[in-house]
Amino acid sequence: MTLFFDSLDAFWWPYLFVLLGAALPTDMWRWLGVAFAGRLRDNSEWILLARAVANALVAGVITRLILFPTGALTSIPVWIRLVAVAVAVVFYFGVMRNLFVGVLLGAVSLVGLALLCGGAMI
Questions:
Q1: How high is the mean pLDDT of the chain?
Q2: Which of 19, 45, 91, 104 is most buried per CB count within 10 Å?
Q3: CB-based contact 88:106 (threshold 8 Å)
């Protein structure tokens, strides 16, 4: 038993701690998801619930970034952030639901309007 506690200063101890404390508990749910995913239909109630929760989380993060930003976004006015999101949504739905085009044009509009209006940039 003394040998185990003497090895706490070893270089590998933090890696073992991360593996046991973070990776395994997270991976357990992934393995269970893979095991049960083949048994679920695409339109089952559980899949619809998972999609709804995922969409709600993304919407919450985006809303928080727009209304309560941190970092460099704090120097950009709220109306510019709202216009950039509107541009991204319009182009996403207008260009055959192409996420890349929506995000790219939203980012370009955010940076462009911030530069045009004299906002500080990164």
A1: 86
A2: 91
A3: yes
